[in-house]
């Protein structure tokens, strides 16, 4: 970018590193930020720095937290006997939006990916096993993504937990509401049939 000043080019490069952001969108975002009133731009930058300084992993479930415990682990109203295992904090947000799940979570911070060098030691699996060994857990719901990596991760963890005497279940997958059968792939249809429930 010979026509661009260096700080703008660096800002564009940083926006471009965000997932799903291409070059043109990064340019728009950088120019938007530059056109903010000075106090709003500084508040934006401070919010990023503040989040980086204050947000850490919950000491119990590995979800994002401001202190030692996340809001779910702080709540005395959740069913601690049921743990929903997810790949990412975004998955916790998605499940919480349903307002249906009353148990607690465990965030792995990824899934197995041999190509990227991600195995059991890079995920928060030891912490999950420690929680179960401490007692009081009756069910672990595997809610990893329906990808090859998510499936391998779920199977690995369920086999690891079976000897501990905890029930391991898997989220049902199938046809989305409003979806047409003719557009569903074979795996999705098989899971929809296998996960069917009685009216």
Q: How would you portray this structure in words?
A:
The structure is a single chain. With 199 residues, the chain is an alpha/beta fold. The protein has two domains: 6-54, Orthogonal Bundle (Helicase, Ruva Protein, domain 3), CATH 1.10.8; 75-172, Dna Topoisomerase Vi A Subunit, Chain: A, domain 2 (3-Layer(aba) Sandwich), CATH 3.40.1360. Helix content is 44%, strand content 13%. It contains eight helices and six strands. Strands 4-3-5-6 form a four-stranded parallel β-sheet. It has a two-stranded antiparallel sheet with strand order 1-2. α1 crosses α2. The longest helix has 17 residues, at 38-54. The protein is globular. The mean pLDDT is 91.
Strands, helices and their partners?
Blueprint: H1 6-16, H2 23-35, H3 38-54, E1 56-57, E2 64-65, H4 71-74, E3 79-86, H5 89-98, E4 103-107, H6 125-133, E5 139-142, H7 148-161, E6 167-170, H8 186-194
Parallel strand pairs: 3-4, 3-5, 5-6
Antiparallel strand pairs: 1-2
Helix pairs in contact: 1-2
Features:
alpha/beta, four-stranded parallel sheet, 2 domains, 199 residues, Helicase, Ruva Protein, domain 3
Distance between the termini: 61 Å
Gyration radius over CA:
21 Å
Q: Give the overall shape, derived from the CA principal axes.
A: globular
CATH class of the largest domain equals Alpha Beta
What average pLDDT do the residues reach?
A: 91
Q: What is the ordering of alpha helices and beta strands? A: HHHEEHEHEHEHEH
Largest β-sheet summary:
4 strands, parallel
> Could you say which structural class the secondary elements and strand pairing correspond to?
alpha/beta
- CATH T-level fold name of the largest domain: Dna Topoisomerase Vi A Subunit, Chain: A, domain 2
The count of DSSP E runs of length 2 or more, i.e. the number of strands, is: 6
CATH architecture of the largest domain: 3-Layer(aba) Sandwich
Strand content: 5-15%
Number of domains: 2
How many DSSP helices? 8
How much helicity do the residues have? Answer: 40-55%
Question: Largest sheet, order of strands side by side?
Answer: 4-3-5-6
